[in-house]
Amino acid sequence: MQFFVLSHNLQIHSESVPSFTPSELAEGLSLHSDHINTNALNHPHWMVLVESDLSHQELAREVVNAWKKFRNSLGHSMNHSFIALGGRKDSKATPGSPLQEGYWGVDVVECANPDSFLKSINWDALKASRPVDGVFEVRD
């Protein structure tokens, strides 16, 4: 069983791509995937807990696909990129945090230029500091 704790990094500033509440996002992702279970979170950073029997790479792709289907079903603009950036929590969790040891913290980014965004957060250096099997990037 894989556990993803999702955050949302919306880099598109347009009324045609509104942000989601945790409840909206949990429901929308669940409606657009047969492979995930979701729960909305009450946390300042983390929005949704996702559970699945898929591998972490398959689940990352599934989350991005469900996210896109959800946006599309609402008639939102789709002329931007989606990125899922994940890192496995390999240390003890902070008390009260939804991101537990062994879970994946996943930032879903919606942006116009993925390469520029990844460069702006120094993604290559962040990846290099983690075990190869403890980090992923899925673009669409």
Explain how this protein is built.
The chain is of the alpha+beta class. The chain has one domain. It is built from four helices and six strands; from the N terminus they run βαββαββααβ. The chain has a six-stranded mixed β-sheet, covered by helices on one side. The chain is globular. The model has no long low-confidence stretch (mean pLDDT 96).
Number of separate strands: 6
| SS class | alpha+beta
General shape: globular
Tally of alpha and pi helices: 4
Mean model confidence by pLDDT: 96
Strand content: 25-35%
Q: Reading side by side through the largest sheet, how are the strands ordered?
A: 2-3-1-5-4-6
Distance between the termini: 24 Å
Give the tally of structural domains. 1
Query: Which stretches are low in confidence, meaning pLDDT under 50 for 5 or more residues running?
Result: none
Computed Rg: 14 Å
InterPro entries: Uncharacterised_16.1kDa (IPR020325)
Keywords: Antenna complex, Phycobilisome
Pfam family, one: DUF2656
Q: What's the helix and strand layout?
A:
Layout: E1 2-10, H1 22-31, E2 37-40, E3 48-52, H2 56-73, E4 81-88, E5 104-111, H3 114-120, H4 123-128, E6 135-139
Parallel strand pairs: 1-5
Antiparallel strand pairs: 1-3, 2-3, 4-5, 4-6
GO cellular component, one term: phycobilisome
InterPro entries: Uncharacterised_16.1kDa
Keywords: Antenna complex, Phycobilisome
Give a quick set of tags describing it.
140 residues; alpha+beta; 6-stranded mixed beta sheet; 4 helices; 6 strands; 29% helix; globular
